[in-house]
Every structure is written in structure tokens, then in C-alpha cells.
Amino acid sequence: MMLDVKDLRVAFRRENQPATEVVHGLSFSVKRGETLGIVGESGSGKSVVSLATIGLLPGTAQATGQILFNGQDILTLPEPDLCTLRGDKIGMIFQEPMTALNPAMRVGAQIAEGLILKKGFSKKAARAEALRLLNMVQIPRAAERIDSFPHEMSGGQRQRVGIAIALALQPDLLIADEPTTALDVTVQAEILNILDDLITELGISLVLISHDLGVIARITDRTLVMYRGAEMEQGPTEDILRRPGHAYTRKLLAAMPSRVRASLEVGP
After folding, report:
1. What is the average per-residue pLDDT within 180-208?
2. Phi and psi at residue 107, in whole multiples of 5°?
3. pTM for the whole thing?
4. CB–CB of 160/137 below 8 Å?
5. C-alpha dihedral over 131, 147, 121, 110, to 10 degrees?
């Protein structure tokens, strides 16, 4: 098992007040080459789980349980080991590319940075690899856009740059936190198609976080449904969509437009 999360609990401390637990005993696993969708409404704890998985929880958070990645417990690793793990073994596509990208750096330099620092690439070789990655994520006129700043690109193009950065070091596991948020339907479909193609081509595992069951249905093998920091149900995505076992999942499905539900052949 590549990723095995056991009884994960996350609480946030507040000055002179008891800690508030926001993730309650969550357990799930991801095999090599598998895609897992984590779905739930805003505030259900999805992003907290993703940050815990990559060791990026803020100092006010306290996590207990186990997050085993290839047998190593991420919750017990010192920061230098976590820095080695991030990017090299676990890549992250953050929710909002405009804030995740450095506004003062050209996008090509941002993709190349990890290759130079962690893989020992020369600047010339890193730039060539950055251009290859931009082409791989289907940036139009990549040779021209490699020297663009983030504000000079559209939201969909910035998200593609974020994918390129996450894939630059060829991680074994990719975590995508709401990668299609605030994108129009056409661009959303393009981003999901790119992710699906790259996962198949590169053979990596994916944890896809979303509030939209339609997004989850497109590319995930298994689905975990969360509400208020707890698991409602999990299982094969097809089973969750067609035969939901929990009332909350049925409400999520009912909230989808009927046309979308029909296209996915999901249950009520």
C-alpha cells in the first residue's frame, strides 16, 4: 500500500481555549496507480486532510494517528525529511494557482526551480525540461509562455502550470486540492482530461479533492465521502454513485443538476 491513513485526527489549538478537533478518526488507503476521490461540502475537512498528508499543517494544528507513505509515518518525520519527501515523492496541486504561484517569478523559472535544487539540473537543462512539461500540460505556444508571469496567464493556464510544477520531480503520489475551482466548465473538463491522461501515462497515484461529485466521477477509482471532518462512506466510485449507502451522499447526488446526474448514470 503506497498511502495508508489510520485513525487520523486533527485539532486546532486556540489561546486559552480547548483545542477544536476538525478531523475525526479518518482512515483510508491508496494503492500504487490508484485514484481516490475525497468529496464533501466546504468545511468538511478535505483540505486539512490533504495538508496533513504532505506535512504542511500550520503550527496551531495537532495531528494524531498514522499517515504511512511507503511505510514511513509522515506525522513523525522531522522537517528535513519532509522537505525531501515533498515534490520528490508527493506532489501537490494547490486549490488557487494565483496564490500558489510566485507572482514575481516567471512560470518557467518556477517549474525549473525544483529540478535545479533537488535533481541537480543545470539551468539550461531545467529550462528545457520546463518547456517539455508546459507542452505536456498543453499550454498553447509554450515556448513563448515559458517567460510569462502568472498574472499574464488565464486561470486555466495557471492551473496547468501548477500541474507542471507538481509533476516536475516525477512524484509517486499526486494530491490535487480542488484543481478545477473557479474555472468555467470547458476549462474544467480540459484540466480533468489532462490529469486523467497524465496519471495513466505516468502510472502515478492520485488523491483528488473536490466538493463536486461530477468531478470525482470522471477520473477516480474509489471515493471517500466526508462531512464535518468524518467519513460518511467510502468504496468504489461506481458503487457510491449508483448505490449510495449514506443519506448525506444521497443529498450530494440530489444536489447535482439532473442533466449531469443522467449523464453519469448515478443513483437518486
Report:
1. 84
2. -65, -35
3. 0.90
4. yes
5. -100
User: What pLDDT shows up at residue 227?
Assistant: 96
Cell numbers for 125? 537543462
Give the cell for residue 98.
494565483
Domain count, the chain: 1
Across the range 58-77, mean pLDDT stands at: 95
Could you tell me the pLDDT band of residue 263, with boundaries at 50, 70 and 90?
low
What are the two backbone dihedrals, phi and then psi, of residue 71, each rounded to the nearest 5 degrees? Answer: 90, -10
Q: How far apart (Å, rounded) are the C-alpha atoms in residues 232 and 124?
A: 50
Q: Answer whether 161's CB lies under 8 Å from 97's CB.
A: yes
217 burial type by CB count under 10 A (0-12 exposed, 13-18 middle, 19+ buried)? buried
Q: What is the CATH number of the domain that holds 155?
A: 3.40.50.300
pLDDT at 265: 61
Q: Which amino acid is present at 181? A: T
Q: E-assigned strands of 182-258?
A: 205-210, 222-227, 230-236
Host domain of residue 252: 3-264
Backbone dihedral angles phi then psi of residue 31, each to the nearest 5 degrees = -85, 165
For residues 147-157, average pLDDT: 93
